[in-house]
């Protein structure tokens, strides 16, 4: 039984629609997923900057601000990754409710975990952005030196080496970060949001 069985949901008089109207734009999750080094953080932050320049409210959640705080009790076992994504999904839903775009940059390697987040949200509110980049290219980039450590066995359960990554089957957006520049990837995301009349 859930520990919150006796907790009552508090209805608020101000709704998501009020907040969206005040902001003058929609609110959705842009869920970036991909291997370490594929470019999730770089592209998510570049998209957020472009949104800011257009006076659109957004916030980036990534490992640095979540795994050092809210999720600092979690490691990289399958169970912990699932809990990591579950909590980030719940936080993302709050951001959508607040009328803002939220850009999440987590490996989120398991399809089922990403589906749980999609199911938490309403139709159209979960935009899965797959940063598709061959592991060979991620290994060359190795911005944090982690692939090198994983190959040497210093880090265990590293995604793509000795822990799986399940590719999205029908992501809303695919960004091939080994084929297109950061700017071109940003344009692709902004183009999608514009076409959907979200901005
Ligand atoms: N074992 C292992 N596997 C994968 N990644 C590892 C691991 N250990 C540490 N790191 C660093 O943690 C970042 C991934 O954290 P995430 O919260 O995105 O992972 S997950 O979604 O829960 O799988 C990841 O950051 P990114 O490079 O930004 O993806 C790594 O820097
Ligand atoms: N087209 C591109 N898109 C994103 N990152 C790129 C691209 N080309 C090169 N890079 C580089 O690849 C690295 C990606 O690192 P990062 O954004 O931290 O990835 P992740 O968050 O997926 O681990 C950065 O050093 C970035 O400058």
UniProtKB/TrEMBL annotation:
The active site is at 108 (phosphoserine intermediate). This is Adenylyl-sulfate kinase. ATP binds at residues 34-41. The gene is cysC. Residues 27-175 form the APS kinase domain. Catalyzes the synthesis of activated sulfate. It is an enzyme of class 2 (transferase). Its EC number is 2.7.1.25. Belongs to the APS kinase family. Residues 1-22 are annotated as: Disordered. Residues 1-12 have a biased composition (Polar residues). It comes from Peribacillus simplex. Pathway: Sulfur metabolism; hydrogen sulfide biosynthesis; sulfite from sulfate: step 2/3. SUPFAM superfamilies: P-loop containing nucleoside triphosphate hydrolases (SSF52540). GO terms for molecular function: adenylylsulfate kinase activity; ATP binding.
